[in-house]
Amino acid sequence: MAHSTPIDALLTGAIAPLGPRAAPSGIAKRPVAGPLVLGYTGLVGDVQGDLRVHGGPEKAVHHYPRDHYAAWMAELGAHPLLDQAGAFGENISTSGLTEADVAIGDVFALGSARVQVSQGRQPCWKLNARFGVKDLALRVQKTGRTGWYYRVLEAGTVAPGDAMVCIERPTPDWTLERTWRVLYVDMLAPDELSAMAVLPNLAAGWQAYAAKRLASRKVEDWDKRLNGSRD
Q: What's the CA gap between 38 and 30, in Å, rounded?
């Protein structure tokens, strides 16, 4: 696969209080004008508020398609966050790549770095707080307009306007759309869960989700992730 997609915006964020509970969060990303170093845990200058569930090597870089913004505008109406990239806490914004186009294990060259698709994004309640929409995380999950994460295979320097070029595609049948369908639509399909549990290059946490469902024949409770603590 030699498709090339320019990076429309490269974004980072600092820790800031979010929502009524003032939870520390790095979800508010802002575009940068020049090149940044991309290390094995993300872009220099980018931070996360809760490293138990955000960031780390398997979620070093978050990519969200600008392609989805029109659909969100149609659903939510005018919203200031949708006026520019960064509404969903993304580090990379592009047009022309969506969950239907990108597969687990895809390797992209960007600048002098190399990244690999590791998993889709599991939306959490911080999206609700950011947008002021109480069920936005659930809507993101239901629509499949989730975005995705990369692990960093080779550190390097990346800048807005750099081309993203897919240079390896080991499992083209396992698009992000397919993994979303397994997790959130056909949730107990045994053949799909079996395959996903051992899928090469899929983040270990997602392999574990599939293996646990296959063994228990039950779907995990999403309430805390989607709605936050009720304390």
A: 16
Asked if residues 109 and 167 have their Cβ atoms less than 8 Å apart, the reply is yes
3-state secondary structure 140-204: HHHHCCCCEEEEEEECEEECCCCEEEEEECCCCCCEHHHHHHHHHCCCCCHHHHHHHHCCCCCCH
Residue-range definition of the domain harbouring residue 133: 4-170
In a domain? residue 209 = no
pLDDT by residue (tens digit) across 99-121?
A: 999 999 999 999 999 999 999 99
**In this structure, are residues 66 and 121 in contact, taking their beta carbons and an 8 Å threshold?**
no
Confidence of residue 85 (pLDDT cuts 50, 70, 90): very high
**Tokens encoding 13:** 């964020």
Task: Give the whole-angstrom CA distance, residue 107 versus residue 1.
Answer: 10
- Amino acid code (one letter) for 54: H
* 221 within some domain: no
Does residue 176 lie in a domain region?
A: no
